[in-house]
Model the fold of this input.
Amino acid sequence: MARIGFVGLGNMGGPMARNLLRAGHELAVFDLSAEAMAHVPGARQTGSAAEAARGAEFVLTMLPAGQHVREAWIGAGGMADACAGDAVLIDCSTIDVATSREVATASGRAMLDAPVSGGVMGAEAGTLTFMVGGPDAAFARAEPVLAAMGRTIVHCGASGAGQAAKACNNMLLAISMIGTCEAFVLAERLGLSHQALFDVASKSSGQCWALTTYCPVPGPVPGSPANRDYRPGFAAALMAKDVGLAQQAAGETGAQTPLGAQALALYQRFVGDGNGGVDFSGIIRMLRGSKTETDG
Done:
């Protein structure tokens, strides 16, 4: 079993760290919140990110944004300098591609960008998908560690490729969720039941993950957040962040993504109305034109 340092124990990082412990790994953790560290019983709590990294064979971060990743690894946080020369560095945060590549280069170590898909439920169940960028040898070493937290681990290419895959995937998810919501809104206006539309579309050309796994109306998919008053899940604020990263990348590369741009505008509006902590599938309420209309 491996010696692992883990920094960032929020809604995603906490359950990921607990799964590493369940797999038998030795874990040192750090978070600015003492309460968050207490929610990973069995891990050694440390006083700094650098201390968590020191002596570890693998060091993972799960942080909110690019500036936090840069500061932790190559800034005053000192993690890269604290790591052993042969340690594998793994950043599971979702950040922009340019910052990911910058940090990997500046770290002077073997570093992987490994953002995840699957939300809090996937983190708790250990069924996340990891999209990984970085050197082949580092990926081969890290794959068994990632397997303790996820079901699907894909090596997407060189440094930054994992972040690129995450940006593309979540832009597609945002677009497909909005389309799915619009279809249900239209069905409601036409007097078609949720179940009838689901039964047809889930077996026809309109089938997609947003419908069959994460259905935005209660009933057809009992495990979807729609059945829990849209408690996340994957919060709308995080979806807005991710689609914003995709649009940033589109602007930098000259890619034409008009549906992605429209999806970002809609999620920004939804979040701006005070729904940042609502599951991203809850945008159906805004598309109905009323915050208070029932889910029918």
Observations:
- The CA atoms of residues 198 and 220 lie 7 Å apart.
- The chain has a mean pLDDT of 95.
- Strands lie at 3-7, 26-30, 44-45, 58-61, 88-91, 110-113, 116-117, 128-133, 150-157.
